Amino acid sequence: MLRIRAHQRYAVRREARILRGLRLVGTGLLVEVSQEGCRIGCVMPADMLPEPVENGEMLVIAPEGAEPFEARVRWSGNGTLGFRLTRAFHHHELDRLIRTCRGEFDAPEAREYGT
User: Which of 20, 24, 66, 85 has the greatest count of CB atoms below 10 A from its CB?
Assistant: First the structure.
C-alpha cells in the first residue's frame, strides 16, 4: 500500500521524557520525526499506576540533549505514541533535532555501540 504523507519522516534514536506540565508521565525512545510530528516507542510509564495518556492531550516531549517541544497525542497503541506538534519545526530546527537524535553532537565515547 502506498501512503502519501505531507512531510518526510526521518528515523532517529533518542531517549525522551514525556511530560504533562512539569510532571513526568513516562519515558520512551524517539524513533521518528517530521516537520509536524513525531513517534515515540518503548513507552514506559513513570508510575506503577499512571494516569492514561489520552488522544488529543497536549504533552511536552523532552529528547535527551535537545530542546523540549509541545505536541498533541494523535494516536497510541502497543507502547507507542504518535504526536502532532503544536508548532511545526522550521527547517533548521528539524535539522538540528535530527542531528542531535542521531548522536552527531555526542562525545565520541558516548557513540560506541557494543564491541
Answer: 66
